[in-house]
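re: ur question from earlier - yeah i can do the single chain one, its not a big deal. heres the input i used so u can compare w yours
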Amino acid sequence: MKTISKILIVFVVALNLVSCDQSTKQITNPKDYNDYLGMKINEDLDFTVEEIKFWEDKYAADTVQKSYLGIIASKYTARFQQTASINYLYQAEELLVKANQARNYKNVGSLRALARNYIAQHRFKEALLLAQKALAIGESQMESRKLLFDVQMELGNYNEAQTHLEAIKDMKDYDYLIRLAKWNDHIGDLDTAISFMEKAKTIAEKEKNKVLKIWSYSNIADFYGHAGRISDSYAYYLKTLAIDPNNAYALKGIAWIVFSYERNIPEAKRIISAIEKNYDAPDFLLLKSEMASFEGNKEEAEKFKNAYFEKLSKDNYGAMYNKYNALLYAENQATVAKALEIAKTEVQHRPTPESYDLLAWSYLKDGDAKKALEIANTKVAGQSYEPIIQYHLAMIYKTNQQIDKIPQLKKELEGSIYELGPEFEAKIKQL
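and the output i got, formated as tokens:
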């Protein structure tokens, strides 16, 4: 009897320990965000719609005033950001092209606005030409340099980007600090990146600037997540929603915590389904596919994947989803040739370590491990610290029997499972 009692005591203690461990993993609480999921009113969107009508009516009454074109374009850009409907981005582009034509491409504000539109469309080389033209004109050069930093980073021209970053240096300037944070994240110094984001956030709070606060809170939430500070990440997504109750980005961030950290698939699905009612982005179909795959429901995962490709075909997103497309195509031997084609195009358009990673991964999946290794060693290794890229490197090394390079990568990847997603936990163990 004593032995049985001891066993029962040990079992109960162990059960309590397991329960404690599980409770520490519970960070989110539906009571914190339920009200945001059922939002039927979007005041910001309603205001944007009213503004578009107001300015379109003004322009219709006086078409000589070409300055109205840029204002209307900015409203359509806002509408795209609020709804993810790609047609609004294209409408903004059409208006901005007209505005630039009317001014013979000599107005820096119009040039920069069109460049930002092209960045959103992943037309980076075109954006670069416009940004360089704006800088050459000479007016408000600091703003043009900020834009050039953004474009050069996207193109992988890091020396040029750093030159522009140094030219705008001002530790009291919000725009400089967020770019300095991005630079430090790029070089793999996440702690320093976070410290600069926190400084930028403080400026936004002191200025009581709603737009900057929303951007700061949502982005610092991302940074905290990358650093494994999940509670802090969650808190800042909630702070974002407190200011912008319809913020799809913050809601998606919470859904990711629920899915990847807490592994509560039904709740994550509930959040995503609520977001999709008002925010029409292809990303969510991929996330639902990933969730279904993690549950072992291959049929449902394939259904969402097909729906994703159908949406891209129907709405024409250009090159905006090339990265996702290449990764998806690479997983199937029947479509790996498409992955290679996309990866080669990406390298031509933006020769970043990320683009070369897509190319190396596609070659690996196509059975050319040596070509994959060559690209990985010369264009990727030590040039990017993205977890998915580190995983690809590990797999390339493993396939090429370079086992000695894997342990360090595996150690780093074990700390990145939250960022990569729960499916990678088993994949990393198998390295």
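DSSP finds 25 helices and no strands in the chain. not sure if urs matches, ping me
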